[in-house]
Amino acid sequence: PYTRRELVLGTLIGRILVVGLGVTVGVVAGTLSMIVFGGAVDVGAMAVVLGLTLLLSTAIVGLAMGISASVSTSSRAAILGFGVFMVFYAFWNLVPLIVRYVLNGFSFALGPTPEWVLIWNQLNPINAFRTAIAALTQQPLSGAFYHAVWFAVLVMLGWFVLSTTLGLLRFERTDL
Q1: Whole-angstrom Cα distance, residue 122 to residue 84?
Q2: Are 77 and 67 a contacting pair, CB within 8 Å?
Q3: Residue 77 to residues 35, 140, 155, Cα–Cα distance (Å)
Q4: Which own/partner contact pairs does 93-99 have at CB distance under 8 Å and 24+ positions apart?
Q5: Long-range pairs, 81-90, Cβ under 8 A, ≥24
Q6: CA angle at residue 59 from 53 to 62, to 5 degrees?
Q7: Residues 161, 166, 168, CA angle at the centre, nearest 5°?
Q8: pLDDT tens track for 44-75
Q9: Torsion sign (Cα): 8, 13, 16, 17
Q10: What is the reported pTM?
């Protein structure tokens, strides 16, 4: 019989491979269409973009698997997964606004944005991905460590490892 760990890790690897294949086909198709229609393609840059895209998709699959492994039903997993998606896309940047609003005596803070807000924003894996792509294809947003490619890679890896590990630990301790 399979252990719970083997079940989670096997499912995780399978889903990473399926999503990774889709991402790779999409990037290759986009690159080929650029070539067919006369665009210039920097193969090295496209390989880096593909690598970062695969890393982001792996982090998201790991997050989804962590959520799925930690709840008892597929409907709860879907609701939580959608909730996490909404947090990343719509609400992540609101957290510092709310914290600053409360700390400023329930009025909006004026002045420059504190450094911790900029760091917080980069802890979102989607923001980290965008920052890494910008740093590699354009000008980096700044010279700060949280706008560096290595930091973005660590953020995406961190989301993958942490969510997968927590989901696996929760699944192993759950009484079925």
Answers
A1: 16
A2: yes
A3: 41, 36, 23
A4: 93/121, 93/124, 95/120, 96/120, 96/121
A5: 88/124, 88/125, 88/126, 89/126
A6: 140
A7: 95
A8: 888 999 999 999 999 999 999 999 999 988 99
A9: negative
A10: 0.88
Residue with tokens 């990473």, as numbered in its chain: 16
Pick the closest to residue 58 from 47, 46, 69, 66 (CA basis): 66
Q: How far apart are CA 158 and CA 4, in angstroms?
A: 22
CA atoms within 13 A on the CB side of 75: 0
Which residue type does 16 have?
I
pLDDT at 80 over 90: yes
Q: Judge whether 56 and 49 are in contact, CB under 8 Å.
A: no
Residues 127 and 92: beta-carbon distance below 8 Å: yes
The tokens for 54 are 């695969």
Q: Are 31 and 46 in contact (CB under 8 A)?
A: yes
In angstroms, how far is CA 6 from the centroid of its own chain? 24
The token pair at 157 is 């890896």
Q: Say if residues 142 and 117 touch (Cβ distance below 8 Å).
A: no
How far apart are the C-alpha atoms of 35 and 58, rounded to whole Å? 28
Tokens of 99: 């914290």
The residue written with tokens 């990037």 in the block is 27
